[in-house]
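Appendix C reproduces, verbatim, an entry submitted by the partner laboratory led by Prof. M.T., so that reviewers can inspect both the input and the predicted structure.
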Amino acid sequence: MKPTKILIFRVSSLGDFIHATPAIKLIKQKNPSAKIYFSSQKKNSVGFVTPDLLPFKKKIIDEFIFYNNNYLSLLFFLIKIFRKKFDKLYYLNEFTTKSREKRDYLFFKMCKIKEMHGFNLKGKNTDEERHNYIKFNETYYLCRTVDKHVKNSQISYSNLFQNKFYSKKKYMTISMGGRNIKKTWKFKNWEILIQKMVNNFPNLKIKIVGSQNETSNAKKIRKINKNQIINMCGKTTVKSLFRIINSSQYHISHDDGTMHVASVYKKSGAVIFGLTAPKGRWFPLNKKQKIFYPKKDINEFNPDYIFKKIYYDLKNLR
C-alpha cells in the first residue's frame, strides 16, 4: 500500500516558516506514515532563507518543492504537483485577499488533489473578521487548520529544531535589519540605544546579526566600542545564526526572522514592532520576549524608553 502524500503550501520567509512549524508538526503527528512535502516560492533577495536550510532536530518534511515568481516556473510547478498525485493539501498561506485565496484554490484544484484544507472561500472577507489576534497569534490559527480542537497550551516548538548549541562566552544578540520600512526602527535610535547599553554595562558583549544589507550599519555600530561589539552581519549561515542566537543570553530585534529563532529557543529579549499587521498576529510564542507595539509608528518608541524597559533585564545578565 502506497503511503499517503500530503502537500503543505505556504509562501514563507524565515519567520513565516517558523510560525508554521507547530502546524506542520501536528500534520506529521496526525499522519505518521505519510510522505510530507512542503511547497513555497523562492525569492532571489538578500536575506531570504529557504526553509530546507533550517537545522531540524528530526525530519518532519520529506521533500521541499520550490518555484520562482514567473510564468514558466509556475507552469513547471503545476505539472510537478499534478504528477505527484497528492492525497491531501494543507493550505497554510497567509491570508491577504479573497481573490488571491480563490486563485490558489483553483490552482490546486487543477492538480486533482483529493482533500484540501485551509481554504475559507464562503467565509469572512478579511483577516480581521476571521481571526481574533488580540487573543491568539497566527501560529494558533495555522494549527487550527490542522486540528480544530487543538488548545493553545499544546502548541510549541519543542523537538523541532536542534538544541545542542552552547557557548562558554557570554553575550547578547541584536538584529537591526528589516525589509519593510514600516517595521524598521531608525538607525539613529539603534545607535543611541546601544551606546546607552555599552556605557551602563561595560562587561556586556554584543553580537550584531543580520544579512549583508545590514553590514554597513553594523560597522558603524561597532565603532561605538570595538571591544564590546562584534559584527556578524553577512557572516553567518542559517545554521550558525540559530547557534549564535541559541547561545546568547538576550536578543533584541524588530519583527523579523531572528525574533522567531529567539522564540524557538525561549530566549529573553525585546521586540520592536511596526504597524504592518494586526496587533498580536505575528507575536512570538515565547512569553520571555518583551513586546513593544506602537499606536501609530514604530519610531514613536525612543531609545530612552526602550532602555528603561530592558535595563533590569540587562543588569541581571550573568
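The longest helix spans residues 14-30. Additional entries are available on request from the coordinating office.
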